[in-house]
Amino acid sequence: MSTSKSSFKNFILPMIIIGALFFIFGFVTWLNGILIPYLKIACQLTDFQALFVAFAFYIAYTIMALPSAWVLKKTGFKNGMSIGLWVMAIGTMIFIPAAMSRTYGVFLTGLFVMGTGLALLQTASNPYVTVIGPKESAARRISILGICNKFAGAMAPLILAYYILNDGDAFVESLKAMNAAAQTVALDSLAARVINPYIVMTIVLVIMGIGVRMAPLPEIETSEEDKQAENGGDKKNSIMEFPHLILGVFALFFYVGAEVIAGDTIINYGLSLGIELDTAKAFTSYTMVTMVVGYLLGVTLIPKVIDQRFALKVSAILGILFAMGAIFTSGLTSVIFVAMFGLANALVWPAIWPLALSGLGSFINTGSALLVMAISGGAILPLIWGRLSDVFSTQQAYWVVVPCYLFIFFYAVKGYKIRSWKPGSVKSREASTELGK
Questions:
Q1: Which of 138, 262, 403, 411 has a beta carbon 3.0–4.6 Å from 341's, enabling a disulfide?
Q2: Which positions ≥6 away from 66 have C-beta within 8 Å?
Q3: Which DSSP category does 8 fall into?
Q4: Per-residue pLDDT tens for 301-321?
Q5: What keywords would UniProt list here (predicted)?
Q6: CA end-to-end span of the chain, whole Å?
């Protein structure tokens, strides 16, 4: 009986609480898919300008990840997660004056603050999930939480679209017949629609922060990791002495860029093909649904049938194939291939985290922060997509994801095994042992 209670407190309860967190920040994150076309209309933006929604949100991870690691050292993981939720609440509150003034820069400020809170949450929650159970099943645990995240991501754009773009096509058509003064009034009214949903999100985030603060969550202990690192015979003095981590950061950078492109550009892509907004506004949800399918496969197959490295290889190959399909087909078929990126992306994040964090010991906080910084791929690569779409076409812009998946494939085959920057330093023994093979 006591063993059962201990298991609940040390593993099941943390998973439930972290699952709720993943749901919350999945919901907030994938609102960007509908915010991009919404703000493009409300603030009269080009594709490139509209993609600064993703830039402002995800660049916060790069700027704030290392400060987040410092905060976690001072506060602990549980208190750090509460602070992250409250910072996100400040970001959602900023949307109120942004909407009232219809000022794009203020919207971007709110998104940056939300991203700052998420940087703290991600820095705490991902290593938390990695170390509270066996390493060989870490990808499975993250996959379970990924289902919570992407299920929320599938719901978010549909819910927000209902409140702010339920008449999108008719609204855009009506603007064409208005004079400048009438357009200003209509656009101000459109911007104001976002206020009530973001007030609700602010309240939920504040309550969640209080709940996590009061929850009986155990703190992460790194002493065992330190011992494992020392027993490996390679006592490290700097985070840069872990090549498998640094290469993992680059792999995550490219992955997040590809993931955000898939989720945040698909609505604009559908619109560029002449698909009505009433139909296209659901496309981000399609991408999230395919990701949920991928996560379910991960939960079912890892580690009993396949290991997380094999899942990473397959994910990279599928990403390349779906990119070719998106580029070389047309119409709704091409859009479906973009949505299928979700399937290719699903297991990349849960596979890279345990591979990259393996054996870091006392460097786990900093290593986690670097991996969170890699989320900046979601800031930079969508902007490249936006520029390519303006210069060439929205379809040809998807070439940007091909090198992303090629690097992920390299990491799955070789990069994760490299334990020293010296030539010929691949150490498969440590890697296979740490992965439970």
A1: 262
A2: 366, 369, 370, 373
A3: I
A4: 877 788 878 889 999 999 999
A5: Cell membrane, Membrane, Transmembrane, Transmembrane helix
A6: 32
Helix H, strand E, coil C: the string for 140-198 is: HHHHHHHHHHHHHHHHHHHHHHHHHCCCHHHHHHHHHCCCHHHHHHHHHHHHHCCHHHH
Q: Mention every residue, 6+ apart, whose C-beta is less than 8 A from residue 203.
A: none
- What's the Rg (C-alpha) of the chain? 22
Residue 64, burial from CB neighbour count under 10 angstroms (0-12, 13-18, 19+) = buried
Assess if CATH 1.20.1250.20 describes domain 2-215+223-434. yes
CB 338, CB 398: distance < 8 Å: yes
Closest listed residue to residue 300, CA positions, set 413, 139, 133: 139
Find the range with the poorest average confidence among 98-102, 127-131, 159-163.
Answer: 127-131
Pick from 5, 13, 10, 52: nearest CA to 379 = 52
Predicted structure pTM score: 0.76
Q: 146: closest CA among 320, 352, 433?
A: 352
For residues 326 and 405, what is the distance between their CA atoms, to the nearest angstrom?
Answer: 14
Q: For 180-207, what is each residue's pLDDT tens digit? A: 889 899 999 989 999 999 999 999 999 9
